[in-house]
Amino acid sequence: MFYSIYMQIVLTVALEDEFRKAVAKRMGLKKGNLSLAAAEAIKMWIAVNNKAK
């Protein structure tokens, strides 16, 4: 079973705008796509940083 949590982060306006545009272009404007893309980005960040150790 998977549980979801609410995570609050702070981004620059420019980064947030760029991320939203990239998500919309790749995944569309469907509800939930921003969260899916953020989860994908976090997983990729973890994978890259675990390899560096």
What does this structure look like?
- This protein has helices at residues 13-27, 33-51.
- The chain has one domain (13-51).
- The protein is globular and about 35 Å long.
- Helices cover 64% and strands 0% of the residues.
- It contains two helices and no strands.
- By secondary structure, the chain is an all-alpha fold.
Characteristics:
53 residues; mainly alpha; single chain; 0% strand; 64% helix
Please describe the topology of this protein.
Layout: H1 13-27, H2 33-51
Summarize this entry quickly.
64% of the residues lie in helices and 0% in strands. The chain has helices at residues 13-27, 33-51.
Quaternary state of the chains: single chain
Q: Compute the number of strand runs.
A: 0
Spans of at least 5 consecutive residues whose pLDDT stays below 50 are none
Rg, rounded, reads: 13 Å
